[in-house]
Amino acid sequence: MSDSAWGQIEAYIKEIENTECSDNDALEQFRIRFLGSKNILKSLFGEIKNIENDRKKEYGQKVNELKALAESKYSSCKSDLQSSEREGAKSSMDFSLPSAPFQQGSRHPVSIVMNRIIDIFEKIGFVVSEEREIEDDWHNFTAMNTPEDHPARDMQDTFYLKNSVTNLLRTHTSSVQSRVMTSQQPPIRIIAPGRVYRNETISARSHCQFHQVEGLFIDKDVSFADMKQTLLYFAREMYGPDTKIRLRPSYFPFTEPSAEMDVYWGLKDEIDYRITKGTGWLEILGCGMVDPNVLINCNIDPEVYTGFAFGMGIERQAMLKYNISDIRLLFENDVRFLKQFSSVI
Ligand code: PHE
């Protein structure tokens, strides 16, 4: 018996050396035969009791060598098979196929216009200042010289927060003026972009939420001429170097004197007639010299400082720029609509 055990070991060594695992099945067969739970090695170890005592040690070593050989054969076969599988996968790739289309995101048209406006004012030293959308009555109205009985305060126009008579959704970015003026002393030169809310019926022309950009400049000796020049610079950067502007007298509680600025749009076709109501002029923004009462409310001395402010809506400018006829499209986030702006950074 013991002689045949020695002979078997030699035979198994040869068998292992000659094994070529051509596929995963053959590899698995090899594993079961030599390394599985009822494997050959176990029975060879079991033979040790039949070996003469003085050769038991030598026999044990021989069986261990066989075991090590089977294990290393198994792992080298396995890695050979894996790498040849990878090679196979590689060669079945077609590198000339076009890749899957890359979905590039895009900026919202409102953001595009807003960023453009911010860029223009940053070039001449205005700094962006962003503030809260939930405001209190004081910053939105009282500080801005808007009398208690002003119709803008009415529930019809303003969204007040539930169970609150003082907290509201800001109705204009002018609330940022009072926030900034109460927290810092002049010189102040800020631009404040953001969302505003008014309780209006939603239609193709108006919405209950929209965006404005506010500007505020307070320093010593700031004049109406400074304002006009700043706004002319803006209009020319925004609408082209030959753009003409005009200021019409207007009224805002927080500016005195107040004006509205129009840019000359022209009357080339029938659409121009419609959007400019036949005048060729398009209203772009409201502006004026900061009312001394506003400065006093915010603890700035009107004897020392003067300033100007302006505010403009973004949606209308985006609609003009991109020929969008319905403001609601700007809030619905329909991807088919938004995709059209994907080429614009
Ligand atoms: N807040 C005004 C509006 O919403 C615009 C404005 C801002 C006018 C600053 C003058 C000065 O219509």
Topology:
Layout: H1 2-18, H2 24-35, H3 40-46, H4 56-91, H5 109-122, E1 127-128, E2 134-136, H6 137-142, E3 167-169, H7 174-183, E4 188-197, E5 209-219, H8 224-239, E6 245-252, E7 255-264, H9 270-275, E8 281-290, H10 292-297, E9 306-313, H11 315-322, H12 329-332, H13 335-338
Parallel strand pairs: 1-4
Antiparallel strand pairs: 2-3, 4-5, 5-9, 6-7, 7-8, 8-9
The structure holds phenylalanine.
Task: Give a structural overview.
- The strands form two sheets. Strands 1-4-5-9-8-7-6 form a seven-stranded mixed β-sheet, with helices on both faces. A two-stranded antiparallel ribbon has the order 2-3.
- It is α+β, with helices and mostly antiparallel strands.
- α5 packs across α11 (315-322).
- The protein contains 13 helices and nine strands.
- The protein folds into two domains: 2-91; 109-341, Bira Bifunctional Protein, Domain 2 (BirA Bifunctional Protein, domain 2, 2-Layer Sandwich).
- β6 and β7 (255-264) form a beta hairpin.
- The chain binds phenylalanine.
